Amino acid sequence: MGRKFQNKKKKAAPQLEIVPLDENPPLPPQRSSDDVVPKKEKWVNKQRVLVFSARGISHRDRHLMKDIKTLMPHHRPESKMERSKTLSVVNEMCEMKHCNKAMLFEGRRKRDLYMWISNTTGATGPSAKFLIENIHTMAELKMTGNCLRGSRPLLSFDSKFDELPHLKLLKELFVQTYSVPNHHPKSQPFVDHVYTFTYLDKRIWFRNFQILSEDGGLSEVGPRYVLNPVKIFDGSFTGKTIWENPDYVSPSKQRQVLKKAAKDKYVNRVEQKVKHEATRPVRAYDGAENEELFEDDDPVETAKILAAIAKKKKEEAAKQTPKSALTKKIKEKQLQAVRDVIERKKARTIKRVKKV
Questions:
Q1: What residue stretch is flagged as signal peptide (predicted)?
Q2: What's the whole-model pTM score?
């Protein structure tokens, strides 16, 4: 028996429809705990300030730097810089620390404190040098104000910062350095204190106040210090000098002037002593008139002396011409001088007439 093979026709496979992909697919109603939640980036302004000092600052200056670090949660610390290094090394240090601003404290003779504020992004600058005066730290002041650590401050500037060109530049530098970036990881989402920059007596006065109420009630927190601007440079710690303070006098020069004034005071005192010794009389007093009367106690001798003095005075008065005679002689001399002048004028006029 043979098998019969029948040719069976193959059925065509059903075609699938092409559905366009949705760009925003709907999220599943539930997610597992292992899935990573996508975070939206809010920290956009990533300003980082490198705050450090050079060797040679005093304890008060170190406490001020510590207070500034406390007020700036966006700072980056760094160990002390050796004094043998040049200031251009700061740009490399900022690049290694991923900072775009730098605040350097530089001490001189354990007395004077200078502060540098610079924009170090690409070493383009600008940078400013200040002399810090009248330093008062938070621990020293013991003010009643208080603010949250890491909170964001308001920056208040005097109206002069919008008038003078060099103050406009410093204002922008202060805003980028002192202001805490929004949504910074180490900052708190509160605004409870304000920094005031006041331009007075050709200096910038810094104060930190706590905001007590919305109607403007303030209470000082500290620290407080005065910035005396010295120079503004084109680059970061280098470059050409854009602006220089014409009224700036270095602290060493001021101390030199005070020492010289004290020295002049001492020299004047010594000169007065020498003059007093040179002009001091040998006798305690000059001789009084008729002092010989008191040398003898005999009344007869005293009467004789008095009679002799009276006789001597009479003789001197007789020798002197009376006042009326003296005035008469003066008048005669004056009249004679007038007559001589008239005669001379007459003689001159006669000569002129003869010549003509």
A1: none
A2: 0.65
* The residue type at 262: A
| Other C-beta atoms lying within 10 Å of the C-beta of residue 57 | 20
How do strand 49-53 and strand 75-77 relate by DSSP bridges? parallel
* Sign of the dihedral defined by the CA atoms of residues 91, 164, 206, 193, in that order: negative
19-56 pLDDT, tens per residue?
Answer: 566 566 676 666 666 666 666 677 888 899 999 999 98
Among candidates 196, 201, 212, which has minimal Cα distance to 157? 196
Cβ–Cβ under 8 Å, residues 136 and 221:
no
CATH 2.30.30.100 fits 49-248, yes or no: no
Going by C-beta distance under 8 Å and a sequence separation of 6 or more, which residues neighbour residue 130? 114, 115, 116, 117, 204, 227, 228, 229, 230
pLDDT category of residue 141 using cuts at 50, 70 and 90: confident
Average pLDDT over residues 158-181: 95
Q: What is the pLDDT of residue 267?
A: 85
| Other beta carbons less than 10 A from residue 6's beta carbon | 4
In whole angstroms, give the CA distance from residue 196 to residue 180.
15
Strand partners, 188: 151
pLDDT digit string, tens, across residues 242-268: 999 999 999 999 999 888 888 888 888
Residue 126's nearest CA partner among 244, 51, 232, 245 is 232
Q: Residue 65 burial (CB < 10 Å; 0-12/13-18/19+)?
A: buried
